[in-house]
Amino acid sequence: MVFALVLGLLWPRAARWTEGFTLPALALVMTLSTMSVSGSIFRTPRVLIGPILAGIAMNYLCLGGFLLGLTALFIRDEAIWSGFVLLAAVPPAVAVVPFTLFLNGNNTFSLVGTLGAYLAALVITPLMGVGLLGSSYINPMRLVMIMLELILLPLILSRILVWIRLAIRLEPIKGALTNWSFFILTYTIVGLNREIFLRQPLFVLPVALIAVASTFLLGWGIERVGRAFHVEPKIRVSIVLLGTLKNYGLAGGLALALFSKTTAVPATVSTVFSIVYIIWLEYEKRRGDRNSSE
């Protein structure tokens, strides 16, 4: 991801060529990410209700509402505003589940919560997009079709790959395919917006501040509330991740497909700070583990 960012700043020439590959790359990431979803988790639907509602609430009401509130206060540029609306409207990052495992959270809770938010996104994302941006700025049917292509179709395809046992063969190269897909997306957005990043840093500053607040500040607040209500530590980790990480790749892809390269700036900047945020969470976890062992 960092290499893609640097390459986009130093050598942006190929960005216009890779722009056409952003949506297929996102569809590939979604397919690979959902291959690990086991059909056994749906055998007890009653147990799934809590995580599903939590995933939707944390992703859309908490994080989405927080982003829209800060955007209304600090953003005046129409393209950047549209970018943050798309960011608020997309489901959680696909990385929530592996990060949950890495940070010793409740993996099943995160998996079900993320999946629930993605299924809800098929309805919520188009409604938020049209409701906040208007049908004159965004084609509702095109948005619905893109959501079907990037969420529903990959879910179906992942089930087919599992059923024909091809998912097992793809497992060794899944990480590399995912990394290259994110590389294409990050490089494209940074390359197309190179002039803004290098020559208009003050233009990007409010975007960066919102990105920091929606991860570090909001995550700290969610953690404090969880402790106050005595939420189990493992579930607390899952809730923090669901409430602070958006699918920045999907938001950036939608921005490029529906609007302009400038509209993708919030997703790109937020991606950078989300990486820093995850590193910080890892550091906090290690420090907590050391303190508990002493």
Question: What would your notes on this structure say?
Answer:
This protein is an all-alpha fold and 294 residues long. It has a single domain (2-9, 19-293), classed as Na+/H+ antiporter like fold. It is 81% helix and 0% strand. It contains 14 helices and no strands. It has helices spanning 2-10, 15-18, 22-34, 45-74, 78-89, 96-102, 107-133, 140-163, 166-192, 194-199, 201-228, 233-242, 248-258, 265-293. α5 (78-89) runs antiparallel to α7 (107-133). The longest helix is centred in the first third of the chain and has 30 residues, at 45-74. The radius of gyration is 18 Å and the shape is globular. The mean pLDDT is 86.
Mean pLDDT: 86
The H-and-E topology, N to C, reads as HHHHHHHHHHHHHH
Number of helices: 14
Give the second-level CATH assignment, the architecture: Up-down Bundle
Compact summary:
With 294 residues, this protein is mostly helical.
Please supply descriptive tags for the structure shown above:
Na+/H+ antiporter like fold; 14 helices; mainly alpha; 294 residues; 81% helix
How are the SSEs ordered, and which strands pair?
Blueprint: H1 2-10, H2 15-18, H3 22-34, H4 45-74, H5 78-89, H6 96-102, H7 107-133, H8 140-163, H9 166-192, H10 194-199, H11 201-228, H12 233-242, H13 248-258, H14 265-293
Helix pairs in contact: 1-9, 3-8, 3-9, 4-5, 4-7, 4-11, 5-7, 5-13, 6-7, 6-12, 7-8, 7-12, 9-13, 11-12, 11-14, 13-14
